[in-house]
């Protein structure tokens, strides 16, 4: 079961709800990434059934590696230092998950 958390930038007040790294649900595998096209912090589909990579199912695979906001593919892994995609300040994470997903 995956979990999402609220992340807030103390400098510019940017906030979002994402997993914060690699996360697994019953079907989907997601990774928190920064979209260089729309400058959003997003959970990007990276696989299925506990495995990263394409599944061989064209309808599912068409979304792998795409930003869920703008559908661009110019996404990069969010570093462990948790920089804000808007200003670069370290973001803070909520203590409790906001959503538990499957």
Model description:
It is a single chain. The protein is 4% helix and 39% strand. The model has no long low-confidence stretch (mean pLDDT 96). It has one domain (2-101). The strands form two sheets. Strands 3, 4, 5, 6 and 7 form a five-stranded antiparallel beta sheet that branches. Strands 1, 2, 8 and 9 form a four-stranded antiparallel beta sheet that branches. The chain has one helix at 58-61; strands at 2-8, 15-18, 22-24, 28-35, 41-48, 51-52, 75-77, 92-93, 99-101. A hairpin with a 2-residue loop joins strand 5 and strand 6. The longest helix has 4 residues, at 58-61. The chain is mainly β. The protein has one helix and nine strands. The protein is globular and about 45 Å long.
Brief overview:
The protein has 102 residues and is mostly beta strands. It contains one helix and nine strands; from the N terminus they run ββββββαβββ. Strands 3, 4, 5, 6 and 7 form a five-stranded antiparallel sheet that branches.
Number of domains: 1
Mean pLDDT: 96
* Beta-strand residue fraction: 35-45%
The dominant shape is globular
Q: For the CA atoms, what is the radius of gyration?
A: 13 Å
Unreliable runs, pLDDT <50, ≥5 residues? none
Number of E-type strands: 9
Indicate the structural class: mainly beta
Helix content: under 10%
* Helix-strand topology string: EEEEEEHEEE
Count of alpha/pi helices: 1
Major β-sheet, in short?
Answer: 5 strands, antiparallel
Question: Distance between the terminal alpha carbons, to the nearest Å?
Answer: 5 Å
């Amino acid at each position: 079961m995956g979990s999402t958390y609220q992340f807030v930038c103390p400098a510019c007040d940017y906030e979002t709800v994402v997993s914060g790294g690699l996360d697994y649900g019953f079907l989907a595998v997601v990774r928190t990434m920064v979209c260089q096209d729309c400058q959003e912090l997003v959970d990007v589909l990276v696989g299925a059934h506990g495995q990263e990579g394409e599944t061989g199912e064209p309808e599912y695979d068409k979304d792998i590696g795409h930003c869920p906001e703008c559908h661009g593919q110019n996404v990069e892994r969010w570093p462990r230092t948790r920089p804000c995609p808007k200003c670069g300040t370290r973001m803070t994470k909520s203590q409790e998950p906001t959503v538990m997903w499957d």
